[in-house]
């Protein structure tokens, strides 16, 4: 699983969202709810074959988590999933709402919206 460990990693991953969305999971290694979200996220990545995904251990890399909240205006929660597309967060959710189905739906909605945009 691709990990974000620095602001530079975050910038590189978000910079790659011009054509494909990035699914980011902010995970607390101390929280059982977060462990459940991580399991759902891992299943989503496996089932969808999603290649543009990243994981942030927010206990180890709190400054990156804080930067995400500051840059996006999305209030920090743990666990939290964010979908970046074209450099912006287009969807986010947290806790028990992080499921294979919600992640799949968010990515699908994002890519369908992009397909309908005239070139």
Secondary structure category: alpha+beta
CATH architecture: 3-Layer(aba) Sandwich
Strand content: 15-25%
Secondary structure tally, helices = 4
Average pLDDT over all residues: 92
Spatial arrangement of strands, main beta sheet: 2-1-3-4
The CATH class is identified as: Alpha Beta
| Separation, N- and C-terminal Cα atoms | 33 Å
CATH overall fold name: Glutaredoxin
Folded structure, characterized:
A hairpin with a 2-residue loop joins strand 3 (80-85) and strand 4. 45% of the residues lie in helices and 20% in strands. Helix 2 (32-48) packs across helix 4. Strands 2-1-3-4 form a 4-stranded mixed beta sheet, with helices on both faces. The radius of gyration is 13 Å and the shape is globular. It is an alpha+beta fold and 119 residues long. The protein has 4 helices and 4 strands, in the order H-E-H-E-H-E-E-H. The chain has one domain (7-104): 3-Layer(aba) Sandwich (Glutaredoxin), CATH 3.40.30.
